[in-house]
Amino acid sequence: MAGKSMQAVHYSGYGGGAAGLKHVEVPIPSPKKDEILLKLEATSINPFDWKVQKGMLRPFLPPKFPFIPCVDVTGEVAEVGPGVRSFKAGDKVVAMLNVSSSGGLAEYAVAPVPFTVSRPPELSPVEGAGLPTAAVTALQALKAAGTKFGGTDEPSNVLITAASGGVGHFVVQLAKLANLHVTATCGARNLELVKSLGADEVLDYKTPDGASLKSPSNRKYDFVIHCTTGIAWSTFEPNLTTNGKVIDITPSVKAVATCVLKKVTFSKKKLVPLLLAPKMEDLNFVVELVKEGKIKTVVDSRHPLSKAEEAWAKSIDGHATGKIIVEM
Ligand SMILES: NC(=O)c1ccc[n+]([C@@H]2O[C@H](COP(=O)([O-])OP(=O)(O)OC[C@H]3O[C@@H](n4cnc5c(N)ncnc54)[C@H](OP(=O)(O)O)[C@@H]3O)[C@@H](O)[C@H]2O)c1
């Protein structure tokens, strides 16, 4: 592909939201050692992508401008880099791109072999593109709370906040697979959807009961998988069991301070900040579950690459139900 060009969407500085995205023609990248070049089928937009554009991870990300965002992709292998034996041209894959070079909003992208898995035919490109960040974070958050998925889990009560979102809808499904009792929060319009994903009880977060996080069946939570922002420790605390934990995937500075305070005071109730650690085995695990029909990707909306800015704006708006997908 050397010397050929492709359509891509990039931004050239911090800020600007959807208006900061530009459609450009750029050279197709070349795969290096342990990399493969993918002709992309789909990508999904995660809040992480526009948080990087906003400058929330400066000075580390992006390492330079212009920058093509998006890390979760599906595609067909077009070329393999030196030393790659596990994939060949024509293979269909699901991959998580390197966050510092990203590249998902484009016709082609280079993926690292260690974070690439085969896409079985049962899994569509759209479903697959929704998995790497959201489903793997959901899985790792439940594991951080002690869930083992081996049929040996003690019956526990879990609260999942923002259960209608990209991450939350996977946490609900995975928690039910592990036989946990699930209480979930979401907006009124998604109560039925979240119940259909397996939640045992659902709270509308805009009602007083929802805001208090109180279980309708008066349960205390063994753990919370916290997938939104703006809920104080003082709201979680009275709803936790004696050894209850909050696994916080959106930790603020205040949350990190609470985490430290709970540690130094030997508190039995804990707050655990969680950052996704890309792992091929976890990506394989969720791909297999979708293949077997045990979990599914709820798709909020599908947008062509030519209208990527609409998808970007929708994600920034913060009201996605499941995953926002861009198709090539
Ligand atoms: N730590 C990590 O490694 C990691 C990994 C992935 C994601 N994250 C972070 O996790 C957060 C969630 O990600 P996501 O992809 O799931 O986001 P998302 O898809 O954009 O979440 C949107 C959903 O959240 C719901 N929601 C918003 N505020 C809520 C509240 N107070 N209570 C209940 N539901 C609420 C919205 O419902 P309505 O439309 O009804 O308001 C909407 O359905 C983001 O901040 C993201 O950056 C962190």
Keywords:
globular; alpha/beta; binds NADP nicotinamide-adenine-dinucleotide phosphate; Quinone Oxidoreductase, Chain A, domain 1; Rossmann fold; 328 residues; seven-stranded mixed β-sheet; 26% helix
Quick synopsis:
It is built from ten helices and 15 strands.
Describe the structure.
With 328 residues, the protein is an alpha/beta fold. The protein has two domains: 5-131 and 297-327, Medium-chain alcohol dehydrogenases, catalytic domain (Quinone Oxidoreductase, Chain A, domain 1); 134-273, NAD(P)-binding Rossmann-like Domain (Rossmann fold, 3-Layer(aba) Sandwich). 26% of the residues lie in helices and 27% in strands. The protein has helices at residues 47-54, 125-129, 132-144, 168-177, 191-196, 208-212, 233-236, 253-264, 280-291, 308-317; strands at 5-10, 22-27, 35-45, 72-80, 92-96, 108-112, 116-118, 157-160, 181-186, 201-204, 221-226, 240-248, 270-273, 299-304, 323-327. The strands form three sheets. Strands 3, 4, 5, 6, 7, 14 and 15 form a seven-stranded mixed sheet that branches. Helix 8 (253-264) links the parallel strand 12 and strand 13. Helix 3 (132-144) packs across helix 4. The two termini are 18 Å apart. The mean pLDDT is 96. The structure holds NADP nicotinamide-adenine-dinucleotide phosphate.
SSE blueprint and pairings:
Layout: E1 5-10, E2 22-27, E3 35-45, H1 47-54, E4 72-80, E5 92-96, E6 108-112, E7 116-118, H2 125-129, H3 132-144, E8 157-160, H4 168-177, E9 181-186, H5 191-196, E10 201-204, H6 208-212, E11 221-226, H7 233-236, E12 240-248, H8 253-264, E13 270-273, H9 280-291, E14 299-304, H10 308-317, E15 323-327
Parallel strand pairs: 8-9, 8-11, 9-10, 11-12, 12-13, 14-15
Antiparallel strand pairs: 1-2, 3-4, 3-6, 3-15, 4-5, 5-7
